[in-house]
Amino acid sequence: MPMELAPAHCPTLNADEAARLFLTDHTRDGTPVVIRAITPEDKYEMRDIYPTLSERTLYMRFFRVISAPSLEAISRYTDVDFDTHLALVVLWGPEQRMVAAGRLIRATADSDVAELSCLVIDEMQHRGIGRVLVRQLLETGREWGVNRVIALVHAENHAMLKLLKTQGYPTELVYDEGEFTVTLDTHLPPTDDNDINHATVGAMHQGIEA
Ligand SMILES: CC(C)(COP(=O)(O)OP(=O)(O)OC[C@H]1O[C@@H](n2cnc3c(N)ncnc32)[C@H](O)[C@@H]1OP(=O)(O)O)[C@@H](O)C(=O)NCCC(=O)NCCS
């Protein structure tokens, strides 16, 4: 049974404002990070990152092991309109190195449903960067007018499943053929209660743990 959604709240963040986002946050050990809107210039650093990614990381993100994309292909991820496609990068350390990127994509600029995806580079995984990035994507998405966020997550991607289930939003997980479609109802602000309204469909009887 799909979750019931309340009427959409009004967006407070337009595309121009989204394209100028620049925030600071901290990972769970207190390390400061910068989270900012992606820019076309980021394509060069992203091109250098792709060959360093492990097969597992690529598979978890793209559901197949892709070969390093061309600069032109990468520009589709960096030259974004912030109307239908909002992307953020996480910068780390004194050199402000790019260690993660994440995005929300929706069909039209007035749609209140967006798909979320993200990637943290291998050597920086499990330090809390994914958590701050996903939290910021969800918060920014709410301001951007998104009431429902959908992510396709491999069933073995326990870190991503945990990240999504513990953001304080009602969450529905539907299992099919090795992946979960995770839907977060973000029309209300998050609560501190991580056990709220998690519904899992299709996985239990197949012995899959979400
Ligand atoms: C999935 C991913 C985004 C998570 O980011 P991260 O920075 O590594 O994750 P975090 O350090 O923020 O940890 C997330 C949570 O998962 C938990 N976790 C990590 N590995 C886990 C595992 N194997 N099983 C269960 N939980 C796990 C962590 O304990 C943490 O929970 P906590 O904050 O309550 O302690 C990152 O690992 C990644 O980019 N993976 C490859 C690409 C990918 O999977 N993208 C998502 C596609 S939708």
TrEMBL record:
Keywords: Transferase
Annotated InterPro entries: Acyl_CoA_acyltransferase, GNAT_dom
UniProt superkingdom: Bacteria
Phylogenetic lineage: Bacteria, Pseudomonadati, Pseudomonadota, Gammaproteobacteria, Alteromonadales
SUPFAM superfamilies reported in the protein's UniProt record: Acyl-CoA N-acyltransferases (Nat)
The keyword Transferase is annotated on this UniProt entry: yes
Ranges where the N-acetyltransferase domain occurs: 33-195
Annotated protein name in UniProt: GCN5-related N-acetyltransferase
GO terms for MF: acyltransferase activity, transferring groups other than amino-acyl groups
Keyword Cytoplasm: no
